[in-house]
């Protein structure tokens, strides 16, 4: 069910009182803002704080152009999402709290649902960019600390396990 673009105007003696249907937009908008802030804090922590007690200087981390680009994009998307979500949540809250209007032609508007959706999409994008930043930070740390890949090399795979499995296959 889509949110109506307007509330119901009720004519009073010299004012219009706007009645709005029950809608969790303000609560969900606030929850989205809090979650976005927590995701940004976690993203910054993943990039800046030492991992397993090993710290890397910031200039060594941001030597990678890809990490720098994703970090800036994550920051910009986070700010845009935060502004959009705050703007729509606050405007919806103001529409609902200031529901008595002296202008008798008031249409009782609500916040635009497209702005809520756009803010949510930007918040999702920023969280994904923070995840990519975290992965790129791990790569930059391992390059700086000259750590070997703990997964091993391809030549370390034991082929005898596959020979045993082939013996149990049915023959045609």
UniProtKB/TrEMBL annotation:
Recorded hits in Pfam families, A to Z, give: DUF1218 (PF06749)
Keyword Glycoprotein found: no
Q: Does the keyword Nucleotidyltransferase apply?
A: no
The parts of the chain that form a coiled coil are none
How is this protein situated with respect to the membrane?
Multi-pass membrane protein
- Subcellular compartments: Endomembrane system
Transmembrane stretches, start-end: 26-49, 61-90, 110-132
Could you list this entry's UniProt keywords, alphabetically sorted: Membrane, Signal, Transmembrane, Transmembrane helix
Q: Which InterPro entries match?
A: DEAL/Modifying_wall_lignin1/2, DESIGUAL
Major place of localization? membrane
Any one annotated GO CC term: endomembrane system
Family, as annotated: Belongs to the DESIGUAL family.
Q: Which PANTHER family match?
A: OS07G0462200 PROTEIN-RELATED
Protein name listed in UniProt: Uncharacterized protein
